[in-house]
Each structure stands twice: as structure tokens, then as C-alpha cells.
């Protein structure tokens, strides 16, 4: 502690600041500074208008990269968690210094120019080490302390309870039961311990089936549709090879069919392209043979594998990084990346399953290879379409907890939390989150939460600030005692739920109740590039005014007015009563002093009209249309700086429309200088290069 | 000519299909001089269905053994299908629709017969007289005056009667400058930006020709523009053609302002697409939107191939350039291309929307359209004769006005609180520009409208739109006046396809309608709560 403080003080002295100026940075933040890497006169390049660069100081701490601008009035800070760093690129030294490009997993791109090559190299080497931790204990969540006591932390972990969720679905019932076959992860180490299986599936059948499935991921329930008993089950691929059979596995599928008395067959959906599935047969894996399983309908849905998806995202991000591309470059690049086609493939699979369950009343077994990537995507999209509960704030947390966290989606490998095989990394849950956004765009009233909620979840999947997404399975998390040592993201999001509400949410409307009805015609144009995610740090590209925030403020204001009105009405009633009493008193001529005494004392506690008009005056400043910073926002900024992705990454809160709209469209201040015309005949003194 | 000559069969039984999302209608089909009507049977609850024949863009007929199918593609991009009993009847009706929808004569068009309830002829033509704006500028600046040089449209046939010009330039000089500009469109004021004291001026190209002619009065006029702003003010000429195209124009008598002849002015070239290529882009975009069977990739390829969004980007960034020149650089801006009736107006009107909070109000925007498009002589009749489906394409059609509306929509998407009007008004303007029961968008210029007595014999769209019942459809419930300039982002990621227009009849409308209802509800809830606050203060003094 002392040594840390020592470094602190040294920083202070070196920066030539008095201790008094510690104020804008809380002392807590300074304790983050463990190693003494600090570089001055670094320039942060604005990507949109590359001529503009902010001069400032770069700090490397144990957990963050921090850039503090020199500009005395703002001292804008940019914070980046090491776990967010995806790649670091040292570019060729130029006259102005040595450029360092930091790409983040939340799609932030930081271009720094460091004056000295040696410093740049030091930063580069340090970051490479810091961005690739080798032990879980090095991750931020083990040092992150939001100042909650033990009880609060435990309560936070209890917010989302999967056994409650299965109860909500209507389980257990005559057809489904909770199985303890995987107690202590005896059967499958990547599955949870509590699983629902058909009642007729005995432990013998389950264990037998598990031996016939990749990584022993036997068919288990993902979602039960209580309206018609149809269900969505999930598993990994069968080890069928070219001809292998397994009686228990066949019985298992039979049991799933029997659990839905309304239908005489089940769909088995293999989410892989047929070619990939066939290739697996050579390795003793593969897919179900319709001849061996009675009453199944087998279906391929071609979603590409994690490697294709990783490359596709890479290509799309390259398009986003193009320097002043033409519209045609952009659209061509977007098409070429195939990203939207992959998103549509996942959606189509989800739609197929949702229709089978809700319209046909047929149960579906979904698998891919291991049943933890595409299967998770498809099951959760289908559930989201089927059940309005998952379209609420809490329901969505439950959905991720159920289909992703509990069923062993390999968060650590996919999102590269610890240094590992880069070929394991793939934006699997990013794609699911984008599917949700695409649905939100099509059904603006169907979701209780807003875009910001999705963006913050995406951020925290990579941030490792909360323990929820650590490790590759429930078992690992238990061994690591995550719940005792870290905090839950869900509790944090729930606490700030006011920020994540969609003001347009209508749970009362026929369109948003029950299954979401997608258009019958294939509408490719409905899938759009999600600028709010992939360009989210380029604020200039985003709409300058937020409808969501505006409507939330209006709603809040309405509520406030409503409350005031109630208070006033109450008061009016009292006044009238008093007046009535006065007349009565006059008529009866009895005890006038007591009544008036009572009324005045009561009046003093109620709102007076003066207060009321005072409140009215304060409204404009709360309304985002006026562009003033919301006082509530300032509060969050202070308290939660490091846990709110928007704030932690970039403390430059949009100070409102006024501020932004004052910026010139190109972001540059370059004037058309008098003699800049090269062509004597036409002065292409362009002051708008965009 | 009588309409009845063109109608051989006026009546038939038919089924109407209105796209995948709407239920079909059955009933008696009726053809009149201006309309196609479908009257559902007596048992039906739905109302009479009515289509203005003028809005039919293309017609396609197919016959079976005892019935015929007519596909009507409308100018508002709707596609309708009529299944008509009887082969003869269906062929007759198809022929009649074809003839009636393409009548050329203005004075027999429907606006001359349209007499809606609640509106009186002659009302509201003067809702938005440009003169009022010009008078205000003249009063405020003292450097500009209203001129009646074009009172009889003899100096410039495409200008209105009243124009606003520098005070120091007399009418004789204006007439001589007009002779030096294509179509007589000499430089006139378009917008005065009071905070910076600068002005936006528009004209057509100068007729310098291969001999590099000059015109002293024209030079004087532009000098006066700079002097009027402030001594030593600079100016930029935004030419909406490429410098090569501008040079080529000299061969045909046009050209650009020579640098030496116009001290203080600098020329910038910002090529904007116009004419046939723009129409082609529109046609290809609509084709792509209508193809529901294609894959996601081919959709993106076709979106890219039609270049529409690239045109949106160019138009917006050129307008930003002009606006930035005025607001940031304190320079005067002259905009022209060749004729000065298309891309020129696109740039000047968008620049005003960016700079001027007043033009973002409901009334201000209507005034802007009236002043900068209708009165400024955008040839609506030629440009909007056909929409994206017609096969009979003349070389005059171009969706310049639609491009303007699209750019406004992009502004509204980026600044959802800053425009008082909503998408509804933009859609209405698109529809009415192509086919309308109102007279506002008739003809190509003020001169033609006077000849046809449009003002006295037809109703104004503005009076139609400003009726209280239309309010909710057209207004933006989120509007909060924003006194500042709104600088849009013109980066590719910030521009979107205007689905509300291009996919209006293709995507299911309900989700966005449900959302819109909710927005209105939230906003009106607040209004209601505010109004229902009890007035305690009134009873207070009695205590």
C-alpha cells in the first residue's frame, strides 16, 4: 500500500500538480496504479478526422490503460480495461512519433502516437503481457470492488435463479422431471448439475445416451412451451459415424417425443451445414440416421462454424476501419464479409424452431457439433421469439444464464479472457446479441430493454469485471468459487435498470404478447448493419439525439407531475375541508382555533405553489432535449465510473445536442485558405473532405 | 375531349390484392374520368376503395379463360393487383386506365375538379408567400430589395414574379445579367443567415461559352452580394458539376465564372448526380426492394449497385459544405449547376434546413418547399411525370425532389428531436409531387401556373395538409425547438435506407405503427398531466 502511494505521489510530483488537484480522480483510482508506466505528450488520434489529435498523458495501471487529455477545461479521460484489448499493433515510426494501434473487443479503436520509439516499445511490451493474463486470478473481477458488503454480494448472485425459471415454465409436471443424474458433474462436466429430462428417461437411458454423444452432452431440456407441451431440447452430435447405433440414445429421443402427447414425431435440427456434419462422420461423429430413430424428422440448417464467423467479423471490422471509403466500398465490403448473411442464418434457424413449437406443436432437439455454440444461439433465439418473458429485462438475464452460462458455453475460450488458442476465439454470443438487436429494430415495442442494455452486456462479456462469464463451464466456476470472490453483473444491471428501459415497450399489445410473428416473406433488407455496436465509440456517427432517453425523461417527468398532482389534490381536499369546516364552524360557532391550527401545521409540510413552480422551472434542465447534463447521470459517473462501459471507456459524456451540433461536420476546423487552390481554374479548396 | 370516350367498360366485378400483408377486397369496380373505385358488396363493412388514376405509373395485363388480371404499379411505389371477371371487361378497363392515367393536359386534371368539404377555393395559397420572407430579409439587412423586374415573367420564365436582389443593383442590370445566365436565372437570394450576416445565393450557369464571354452587370451583381454581407467578405461558388463537366459546358454555350472576373469568389466543384442517371438509380433501387426472393448478399450488392445512398451522401455533404461556408467561414455562397433548377435547389434547401431552426418547423418547412422548390421553378411536371415503374420514360424525369426528401429524412433520423414534422409529411410530399388532387405541384413554373389559373381553380396542398385532422399524421411528437445548426454525419455508417418510403408497401407496417402510437401516448400523457394540475393558488388566498 505504501509503495503504491509512493508511486502515486511520484506521479503527482512529476505531473507538477498539487495534492489538492487529486480531486477529479478519486484516491481509489490511484490505487490502481501499480507499476510506474506513464508517458507524456502522447497524441490520441481521432479516427474520423485524422487531422485532429488530443495531446495528453498515457498511464498503464494493473487493470487499465488510461489516457488523460491535457486540455485543462475537460481533462477528458479514456479508460480501457486490459481484458478488452484484442490486438496491439506497433506501426512504423513516423516523423511525429511512433504510432500504436489498440483494437478492443468492444470495437473501440485507439490510435496513439508516442513521441519516443523506446517508450512506445515499452508500452507495447507491457500491454502485450497485461492483455493476456494466464491465470483467472489476474482478471479484473478479482480486484474489482464496488463497495458492497458480503450480504449484498450474495443477494446479487441470487437475483437470477434458474430453478425458479423452470418453475415458471410449469415444471416439473407429468412429463418432465428434475434429474440428479449429473450430480457432481458425474455424467457431463460441461453441463449443469440440475437438468430437466423426460419422465420416462431413466438414469440408465440418460447415461447410455450420454456415452453416444460428443463430450457426453446428452439431450436435455432447454425450453418447455406450456401452451401445447412442445419443447426445445439440446445436445451435442451423436457418435454415429457411418453406422453406429445406441439403443439408449434412441430411447432418449423417443422419451422426448412421448413427453409431448400432442405430436407423433419430433424434429431433430442439426444447425451445421450438411457438408460439415458429413465430414464429422469420418471421425466417428455425425448426425442421426432417420432409419434408426423412430418418428424423427431430421433437418439441416446451415450455420457456419466458429472459424468462418471469426473471419467474417474480422472482414466486417476491416470495412469499418477503411479510411474515407465510398458508399460502394462500404456496401460491397459489408456484403463480402457475409456477416449479415450469417446473422440471418441464425435467425432463420430460430424462426424455424419457434414455428415448429408454437404452430405445429412439435418438439425439437437441437444440436451442432459440441452443442455449445450454434445450439446456444439457436435455442435462445427461438426462446426469445416464443416467450415474452425473455423479452423483459430480467427474463433476458435468465435466458443468457440458462442457455449460455449453465449449459457450458465456453466463455473463456470464445472471448479470450485468458491467453489461449486464438483459433478458439469467435463472436458467438455477439451474434446472438445482434440477433436480438435486429429483432428490436423490427419490433420496437416488444422488448422491455433498450439497445444500451445489449451493448453493456456485450461489453461485460469481455471486461471480466464481473464473475458471471468467467471460465468455460459451471463446474470450473464452482471450483474457482466465483460467487464468493466476485460480483454478479446481473445485480449491477438490475440496480441501474432505469438506464436500460425501452420507453416504447408495450406488453399489453397483441403484437408483442405471445410469439413474435415475423413476416412470412423473406425480408433480407430487414437485416441492417448495427452501427450502434460496431461504431459505438465513434459518437459522431451515431444519431445526435436519443429518442429513448428523451422519452424516458418525458415519462419520468409525467410521473413526477402525477405525483405532484396527487399531493396537490390531497392538499386541495384538505383546504376545501378546512373551508368547509370554517363554514361549519361559523355555523356552529365551536372551537375554531383548533381547526385552523391543525390546518396550518399540515400546510407547512405539503408542497406550496411556490415550490411547485420552482419544480417546473427545473424541468427544462432535466429534459434531454435541452441538452443539459442530467444530474442523475453525473451521479452515476462519479459512483460507477469503472463499472459502466460507456463511462469507463470514455468519460466524455455527450454534453448534449448543443455541444455536438456545434462541431463542424467534418470535425475539422480547417478553413478554406486563400491560396490553397492547386487548380488555378477551379479552387478545390475543400473545407469538407468527408 | 370527353373522358367518357376513353371508358368503354365502366363497371366490373373484381378482386383487389394489396400486397402480402393486407387482406384482399372484393366488390364492384368502377372507372371514372379520374378515379378507379372499388365498392365492396353491401354486406362488407370496409369503405369504398379509391385510387387516383394519375398515380398509376405502369400497367400490366394478363388474361385467363374467363377473367383478367391487371397489375397496377403506382407512383407512390404501391403494387396492386386486380382480378376482373370477364376477359373483354378486363381488357377494356386496362386500356382505359392506361389512357386516362397518362393524360397530358393540366387543366383537365383532377385538381381542377377536386372540391373537398371544409376547404374554400383560394384559401391558403398565401400561407407561405415567399415575398413575406424576402421582405423580412430586405428589412433586416438593408442590403437587399424586392424587385419586380420579373413581374411579367419576361426576364426569367422559371422565376416567380418577386425576386430578391442586392439593393445596389438596378432592374436594368438584372435583365442584362439574366441574359448572361442560362434560362435567365440570374443570381438571387435564397437564404440570409442572420447570425453570420452571410447569404446563400443561387442562379444557373453563366453563358461564358467557348469565347469566354463576360458580363459586367453579372460581375457587378456578385460583387454587390459580397459588399452587402460586409466589406471584404469572401464568397464561394459551389458548382454542382465536376470541373470537367463544367468545362465541357462551354462548348454548348454554358460554362463557369472566370476567376479573374469575379474577385473575392472562389469556385468549388461538387458533382451531384442528376437527370437520367439519378432516375436510373431510383428505378434500380425500387426494383431491388421489390425482389423478395433474393439472398441477403445479393440485396446488399443491389443496394450498392443502384448508388442511391451514395447520391444521398453527396447531396448532404454538398449542403453541409455550403452551410459550413456560411456559418463557420462567414462566406457568401453561390450555388449553381447548369439550369439551376435541380441540384442547385437541392443544395440550397438542405443548407437552410441545417442552419435555420425556423425551416425545421412545420410551417417553416412548407414555406421552404414552396419558396425553394415550387416558386423557384423546379419543373415538377417534367421531373415527376413518372415514378420508378414506368416504361414510357422521357429524358426529363428525375427524382431530385425525392432525393431532397430522403436527405431530410436522414437529418430527422440523426436529429430525431429537431424537426417539428415527421416522416408522415415527407411521405405526403412525395405522393403529392407525383400525383395529387391538389394543385400545388402542378406545372413547371410560376408562369405556367398563372396561365392555367392554378391558384384560383384548384386547392392548395398546404391548406389540405394544415387541416387539424392531418396533424397527428404529419407532426413529430418528439419535437423540441433546437436553436442551433444541425450538422449531420455523412459517414456511410450514419446513412440508412429510407425504409418508410422504399419498403413502405413491402414490410409489415404494424410494428412501426404500434411504436408510433406509443410515442404519441407518452407525449400526450405528459401534456394531459400538465393540464390537469389543479390550480391551488386560486383557492389559496381564501385561507
From TrEMBL, chain A:
InterPro entries: MTMR7_PTP (IPR030572), Myotubularin (IPR030564), Myotubularin-like_Pase_dom (IPR010569), PH-GRAM_MTMR6-9 (IPR048994), PH-like_dom_sf (IPR011993), Prot-tyrosine_phosphatase-like (IPR029021), Tyr_Pase_AS (IPR016130), Tyr_Pase_cat (IPR003595). Keywords: Coiled coil, Cytoplasm, Lipid metabolism. It holds the Pfam family PH-GRAM_MTMR6-like. Transmembrane segments: none annotated. The keyword NAD does not apply. Residues 156-534 form the Myotubularin phosphatase domain. This is Phosphatidylinositol-3-phosphatase. It comes from Felis catus. The lineage of its organism: Eukaryota, Metazoa, Chordata, Craniata, Vertebrata.
From TrEMBL, chain B:
This is Myotubularin phosphatase domain-containing protein. Residues 124-502 form the Myotubularin phosphatase domain. Belongs to the protein-tyrosine phosphatase family. Non-receptor class myotubularin subfamily. It comes from the Eukaryota. InterPro entries: Myotubularin (IPR030564), Myotubularin-like_Pase_dom (IPR010569), PH-GRAM_MTMR6-9 (IPR048994), PH-like_dom_sf (IPR011993), Prot-tyrosine_phosphatase-like (IPR029021). CDD domains: PTP-MTMR9 (cd14536).
Amino acid at each position: 500500500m505504501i509503495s503504491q502511494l509512493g508511486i502515486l505521489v511520484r506521479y503527482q510530483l512529476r505531473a507538477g500538480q498539487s495534492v489538492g488537484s487529486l480531486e477529479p480522480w478519486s484516491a481509489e483510482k490511484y490505487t490502481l496504479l501499480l507499476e510506474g508506466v506513464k508517458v507524456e505528450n502522447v497524441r490520441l488520434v481521432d479516427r474520423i478526422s485524422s487531422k485532429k489529435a488530443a495531446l495528453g498523458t498515457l498511464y498503464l495501471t494493473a487493470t487499465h490503460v488510461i489516457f488523460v487529455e491535457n486540455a485543462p477545461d475537460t481533462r477528458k479521460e479514456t479508460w480501457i480495461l486490459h481484458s478488452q484489448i484484442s490486438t496491439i499493433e506497433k506501426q512504423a515510426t513516423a516523423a511525429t512519433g511512433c504510432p500504436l494501434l489498440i483494437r478492443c473487443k468492444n470495437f473501440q479503436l485507439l490510435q496513439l502516437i508516442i513521441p519516443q520509439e523506446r517508450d512506445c516499445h515499452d508500452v507495447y511490451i507491457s500491454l502485450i503481457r497485461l492483455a493476456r493474463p494466464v491465470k483467472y486470478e489476474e482478471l479484473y473481477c478479482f480486484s474489482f470492488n464496488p463497495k458492497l458488503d458480503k450480504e449484498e454480494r450474495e443477494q446479487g448472485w441470487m437475483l437470477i435463479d434458474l430453478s425458479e425459471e423452470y418453475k415458471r415454465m410449469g415444471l416439473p409436471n407429468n412429463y418432465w422431471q428434475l434429474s440428479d443424474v449429473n450430480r457432481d458433474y458425474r455424467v457431463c462436466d460441461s453441463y449443469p448439475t440440475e437438468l430437466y429430462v423426460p419422465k420416462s428417461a431413466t438414469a440408465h437411458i440418460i447415461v447410455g445416451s450420454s456415452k453416444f454423444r460428443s463430450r457426453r452432452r446428452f439431450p436435455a431440456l432447454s425450453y418447455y412451451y406450456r401452451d401445447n407441451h412442445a419443447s426445445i431440447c439440446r445436445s451435442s452430435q451423436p457418435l454415429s459415424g457411418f453406422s453406429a447405433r445406441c439403443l439408449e440414445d434412441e430411447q432418449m429421443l423417443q422419451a422426448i417425443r412421448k413427453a409431448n402427447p400432442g405430436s407423433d414425431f419430433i424434429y431433430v435440427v442439426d444447425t451445421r451445414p450438411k457438408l460439415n456434419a458429413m465430414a464429422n462422420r469420418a471421425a466417428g461423429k455425425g448426425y442421426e440416421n432417420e432409419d434408426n430413430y423412430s418418428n424423427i424428422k431430421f433437418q439441416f440448417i446451415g450455420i457456419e462454424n466458429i472459424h468462418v464467423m471469426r473471419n467474417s467479423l474480422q472482414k466486417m471490422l476491416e470495412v469499418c476501419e477503411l479510411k474515407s471509403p465510398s458508399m460502394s466500398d462500404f456496401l460491397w465490403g459489408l456484403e463480402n464479409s457475409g456477416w449479415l448473411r450469417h446473422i440471418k442464418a441464425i435467425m432463420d434457424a430460430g424462426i424455424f424452431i419457434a414455428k415448429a413449437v408454437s404452430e405445429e406443436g412439435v418438439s425439437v432437439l437441437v444440436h451442432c457439433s459440441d452443442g455449445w455454440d450454434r445450439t446456444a444461439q439457436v435455442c435462445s433465439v427461438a426462446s426469445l421469439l416464443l416467450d415474452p418473458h425473455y423479452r423483459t429485462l430480467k427474463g433476458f438475464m435468465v435466458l443468457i444464464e440458462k442457455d449460455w452460462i449453465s449449459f457450458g458455453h465456453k466463455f473463456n475460450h470464445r472471448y479470450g479472457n485468458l491467453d489461449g488458442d486464438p483459433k478458439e476465439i469467435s463472436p458467438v454470443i455477439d451474434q446472438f446479441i445482434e440477433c436480438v438487436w435486429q429483432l428490436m429494430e423490427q419490433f420496437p415495442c416488444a422488448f422491455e430493454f433498450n439497445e444500451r442494455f445489449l451493448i453493456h452486456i456485450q461489453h461485460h462479456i469481455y471486461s471480466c469485471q464481473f464473475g458471471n462469464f468467467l471460465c468455460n463451464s459451471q463446474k470450473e466456476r464452482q471450483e474457482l468459487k466465483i460467487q464468493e470472490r466476485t460480483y454478479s453483473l446481473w445485480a449491477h444491471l438490475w440496480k441501474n435498470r432505469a438506464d436500460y428501459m425501452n420507453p416504447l415497450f408495450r406488453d399489453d399489445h397483441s403484437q408483442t404478447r405471445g410469439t413474435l410473428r415475423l413476416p412470412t416473406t423473406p425480408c433480407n433488407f430487414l437485416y441492417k448493419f448495427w452501427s450502434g455496436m460496431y461504431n459505438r465509440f465513434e459518437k459522431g456517427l451515431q444519431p445526435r439525439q436519443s429518442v429513448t432517453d428523451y422519452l424516458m425523461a418525458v415519462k419520468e417527468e409525467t410521473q413526477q407531475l402525477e405525483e405532484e398532482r396527487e399531493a396537490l389534490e390531497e392538499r386541495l381536499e384538505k383546504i376545501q375541508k378546512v373551508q368547509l369546516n370554517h363554514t361549519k364552524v361559523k355555523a356552529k360557532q365551536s372551537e375554531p382555533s383548533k381547526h385552523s391550527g391543525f390546518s396550518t401545521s399540515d400546510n407547512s409540510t405539503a408542497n406550496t405553489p411556490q415550490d411547485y413552480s420552482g419544480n417546473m422551472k427545473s424541468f427544462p434542465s432535466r429534459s434531454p432535449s435541452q441538452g443539459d447534463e442530467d444530474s442523475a447521470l453525473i451521479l452515476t459517473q462519479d459512483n460507477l465510473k469503472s463499472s459502466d462501459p460507456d463511462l469507463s471507456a470514455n468519460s466524455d459524456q455527450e454534453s448534449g445536442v448543443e455541444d455536438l451540433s456545434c462541431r463542424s461536420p467534418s470535425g475539422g476546423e480547417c478553413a478554406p485558405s486563400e491560396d490553397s487552390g492547386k487548380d488555378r481554374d477551379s479552387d478545390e479548396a475543400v473545407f469538407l473532405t468527408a | 375531349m370527353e373522358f367518357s370516350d376513353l371508358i368503354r367498360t365502366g363497371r366490373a366485378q373484381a378482386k383487389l390484392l394489396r400486397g402480402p400483408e393486407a387482406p384482399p377486397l372484393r366488390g364492384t369496380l368502377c372507372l371514372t374520368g379520374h378515379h378507379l373505385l372499388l365498392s365492396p358488396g353491401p354486406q362488407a363493412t370496409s369503405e369504398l376503395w379509391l385510387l387516383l388514376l394519375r398515380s398509376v405509373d405502369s400497367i400490366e395485363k394478363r388474361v385467363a379463360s374467363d377473367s383478367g388480371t391487371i397489375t397496377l404499379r403506382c407512383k407512390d411505389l404501391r403494387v396492386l393487383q386486380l382480378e376482373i371477371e370477364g376477359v373483354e371487361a378486363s381488357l377494356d378497363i386496362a386500356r382505359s386506365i392506361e389512357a386516362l392515367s397518362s393524360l397530358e393536359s393540366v387543366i383537365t386534371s383532377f385538381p381542377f375538379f377536386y372540391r373537398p368539404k371544409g376547404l374554400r377555393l383560394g384559401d391558403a395559397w398565401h400561407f407561405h408567400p415567399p415575398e413575406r420572407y424576402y421582405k423580412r430579409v430586405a428589412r433586416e439587412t438593408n442590403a437587399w430589395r424586392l424587385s419586380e423586374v420579373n413581374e411579367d415573367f419576361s426576364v426569367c420564365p422559371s422565376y416567380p414574379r418577386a425576386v430578391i436582389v442586392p439593393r445596389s443593383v438596378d432592374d436594368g442590370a438584372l435583365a442584362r445579367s439574366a441574359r448572361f445566365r442560362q434560362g435567365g436565372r440570374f443570381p438571387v437570394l435564397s437564404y440570409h443567415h442572420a447570425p453570420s450576416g452571410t447569404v446563400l445565393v443561387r442562379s444557373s450557369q453563366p453563358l461564358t461559352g467557348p469565347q469566354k464571354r463576360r458580363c459586367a452587370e453579372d460581375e457587378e451583381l456578385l460583387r454587390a452580394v459580397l459588399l452587402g454581407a460586409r466589406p471584404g467578405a469572401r464568397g464561394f461558388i459551389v458548382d454542382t458539376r465536376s470541373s470537367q463537366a463544367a468545362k465541357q459546358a462551354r462548348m454548348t454555350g454554358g460554362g463557369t465564372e472566370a476567376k479573374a472576373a469575379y474577385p473575392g469568389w472562389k469556385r468549388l466543384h461538387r458533382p451531384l448526380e442528376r437527370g437520367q442517371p439519378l432516375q436510373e438509380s431510383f428505378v434500380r433501387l425500387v426494383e431491388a426492394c421489390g425482389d423478395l426472393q433474393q439472398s441477403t448478399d445479393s440485396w446488399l450488392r443491389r443496394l450498392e449497385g443502384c448508388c442511391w445512398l451514395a447520391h444521398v451522401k453527396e447531396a448532404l455533404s454538398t449542403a453541409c459544405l455550403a452551410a459550413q461556408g456560411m456559418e463557420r467561414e462567414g462566406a457568401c455562397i453561390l450555388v449553381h449547376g447548369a439550369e439551376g433548377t435541380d441540384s442547385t435547389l437541392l443544395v440550397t434547401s438542405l443548407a437552410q434546413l441545417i442552419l435555420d431552426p425556423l425551416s425545421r418547423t412545420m410551417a417553416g418547412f412548407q414555406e421552404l418547399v414552396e419558396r425553394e422548390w415550387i416558386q423557384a421553378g423546379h419543373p415538377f411536371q417534367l421531373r415527376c411525370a413518372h415514378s420508378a415503374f414506368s416504361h414510357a420514360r422521357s429524358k426529363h424525369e428525375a427524382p431530385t425532389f425525392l432525393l431532397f426528401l430522403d436527405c431530410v429524412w436522414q437529418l430527422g433520423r440523426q436529429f430525431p428531436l429537431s424537426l417539428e414534422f415527421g416522416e408522415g409529411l415527407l411521405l405526403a410530399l412525395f405522393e403529392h409531387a407525383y400525383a395529387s388532387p391538389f394543385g400545388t405541384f402542378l406545372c413547371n413554373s410560376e408562369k405556367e401556373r398563372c396561365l392555367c389559373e392554378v391558384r384560383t381553380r384548384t386547392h392548395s396542398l398546404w391548406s389540405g395538409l394544415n387541416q387539424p385532422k392531418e396533424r397527428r399524421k404529419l407532426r413529430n411528437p418528439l419535437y423540441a425547438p433546437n436553436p442551433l445548426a444541425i450538422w449531420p454525419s455523412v459517414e456511410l455508417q450514419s446513412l440508412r435506407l429510407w425504409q418508410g418510403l422504399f419498403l413502405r408497401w413491402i414490410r409489415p407496417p404494424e410494428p412501426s405503427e404500434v411504436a408510433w402510437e406509443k410515442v404519441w401516448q407518452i407525449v400526450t400523457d405528459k401534456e394531459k398531466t400538465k393540464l390537469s394540475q389543479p390550480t391551488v393558488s386560486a383557492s389559496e388566498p381564501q385561507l
